[in-house]
Each structure stands twice: as C-alpha cells, then as structure tokens.
C-alpha cells in the first residue's frame, strides 16, 4: 500500500509539473506573438526609423547578419542611413542590416528617394536604364554599381562617361572596389579535387568513340565571335558539340535541360574528354566564368579564349591552352593532335592537379582574402558584402562630419568596368555566319558610346529627363 501511495504521489507530481510547463510555454508563445507584432521596420517619419508591428522582413540571401538579433538595440535606435536599391534586386521593402558596428536600412521603395536619411542608391547593372534615375542627385547621394555579368547585357556601362558616374563598384574587374573576379569558383579545394578526374588510360580508350575536343554552348554568336572560331577549327580536328551552337552530338534526354549543367552526370560526360573548348561570350579583362573553372574541376585541359590576362588567374603556368597563342585554328588543331598522341606532354597540363599544387599566389590570395562565398551558406554572399561595403563607407563619412572633417569621396575608375570593341577573327569572312557580329554587336557597341555620352550630359544637368530627350541627344551625337 505504501508503494502504491508513493506511485500515486509521484504521478500527481509529474502531472502537475507537465501542466505547469504547458502553462509557461503557452505564456511564452503569447508573449513572443505580442513581441513580433511590435517589431517591424515601419516607414520613415520625420527622418526617423521606428519599429512598430512585426519582424517579418526575411532576406532572400543566406547568412545575413540581422539587426533583429539584438532586439533591445533595435528598439533603442531610431535613426539609420538609408540605402535604396534603385534596381529592385533584393525585393526587400525594408530591412535593418548590421555590417560590423554599423547599421543601415536597406529598401527598394522609391518613396524614400527624397528622405534626408537616404545616403546611397544601389544599382544592378543589367537593370540599369535611362527610363528613371534618382535625380536630382544631392551632394551626399552616393551611387553604387553591382555588375558581375557580360557587357552584352548593358554596353553603355562599359564606357568612361557612364562608369565614372558611380562612387562604389562591385564588378568582375580586379580593380573595382569589390572585385568579383573569382565569382564562379567555389574554392581552391574544388579545382584540386580528383573526384571527377578520369585516368588518361581510360580517356585514350574512350577516344575511339569521342572526339578529342568538346564544345558545349547554347548562347550562339555572342560578341566574342567564338562560334566562328570553333566552326573553322572543326575543319581541322574533330569536335563534339553538345549545345545548340554548332550542334553535332546529343546529350542524354535527362541532361538536355540547361539546369543540368551542374549535374554530376553531365560532369562525368565532360570529364571523359581530353580537352574542353572554354570560350567566353565576351573578351574583357578579368571576365572569367565557369567556362574556365569547370574543365579545371573535372581534370580536363581547357582550351581558353576570353580574358586577355587569364594567365594571372590560372592555377599554374601550364594548366590551359590559350587560343591567342596560335595565329590560326589550323595551328591550334595541329598542337592538340600532337598532345592527343603524346601522353607525357598531355599529362604535363594536369600535373598541378594530380599533385594538388597551385603555384599561382594571386589566385590563392584572392580566394583566401575575399569576404564572400560561392554556393556556401556558411558565408555571406557577394550581395551582402556589397551592401555592407557601401554601408560602412556611408557611416565613415557620418563620423567624419561629426568630427568636423570633409567627407571622403570614392569614385569609380575606367578600369572598374571596361571591355574593348568586339572584333571578328582575322580568318573570318563577311558571310551569313558573321552577320550577328557585324550587324548587331559591333553597331551596338558603337551606339553605346553615344548613349554613355548623352547619359552623362543629362545626369550632370541634374534634372529629371525623358526617354525622348535622351534619344534625341543620342541621335544628335550620331549626326556630328
């Protein structure tokens, strides 16, 4: 009986404890609900940011340090500089973000344009256009440009009159304030990895059914004129072309979707080849894409055409074949045929990978020192870092002014985003295959210079302008 009594006593005790825990949990949930309804970045009133309703502005990019991690600090603060995304890249209507010790309010809402706390306007290059710009531009209004893509997306940005309108830049150029040159390379270990590498003996055996070279492009006839070169090259050596451009070989059905370009099965197909034609869609200093990094990951020798200074970024002095070192595709074909039949010479291009020895200190330093990651949720991405760079600089000037010092001025330089005029290969003839370059890209580049000059004149006038005014000025430039 005593044991039964004790059991009942303990049972009652556990029931009471569980009931008490449920009550406390319910109370906490209710209080959190009330708190969330109170915490919200509201509209700016009288130049002050006030937090009122609910904390629901979630950033679409990973690993963003949010000010909400310290609610008390948020509630105690009521004024922050505003950074307005004029190009609605992030889609955020309002978010307080913390960048080290600095806090800024990020938004895409243009209603903040004339607020006295607005300090900078952020632009995404591909979406930058003349239809609407934040004018008049006040002396304390900085313009910041983020543009990681090919010049074919917006040529007028690549001319001095336009690029020098900006104060802060994040571009593929090593000279920009936030260089994105290695944006397509996840890390050093990725290119050192032997995961996909196929032994040379097996590659030689596979050569019975595969060409020595593979070409995978579906963006045909771009400004680099790469298809003209590969078409000529095909006259002297066999090339398997899986993409829409110069297509002569099919991928398995499940890999035909462009989304499969990073599929492991697609990688395994490419890894069987000895050489990959790695041609960029444009020829610009430091414009380097997955075209280069992919074959290096897979243990295939890239035959590269693109950035003129590509040797500054290769893992070793002998890790790629450079098209520009050959006067004609015929000579390149002859060299590749020689390597194809000489295992020792071929393997010399892969020695760095087999040994895991990257001798390029510039590449190693760039990866180690960059503050953002690629496909890595444990690191900030380059959008985060770009925002914080501008935020930190805005706050630097706020502190300087508090000390009675003149604000510091940052200015974009021509080498922050610069590409030469598209050119056809010397062996090309003006036939129907060359018309895209002759009739579209070269005229587009030439007109973009006039557009850049017209834009500069109108922005310096510091008044809103219409598209008609802009194009009238462009055509006026053409008639001079």
Automatic annotation (TrEMBL):
Keywords: Endoplasmic reticulum, Glycoprotein, Glycosyltransferase, Membrane, Signal-anchor, Transferase, Transmembrane, Transmembrane helix. It is an enzyme of class 2 (transferase). GO terms for molecular function: alpha-(1->3)-fucosyltransferase activity; peptide-O-fucosyltransferase activity. InterPro entries: Alpha-1_3-FUT_met (IPR017176), Glyco_tran_10_C (IPR055270), Glyco_tran_10_N (IPR031481), Glyco_trans_10 (IPR001503), GT10-like_C_sf (IPR038577). It comes from the Eukaryota. It is found in: Endoplasmic reticulum membrane. Its main location: endoplasmic reticulum. One of its GO terms (biological process) is positive regulation of protein secretion. Its EC number is 2.4.1.-. Pathway: Protein modification; protein glycosylation. This is GDP-fucose protein O-fucosyltransferase.
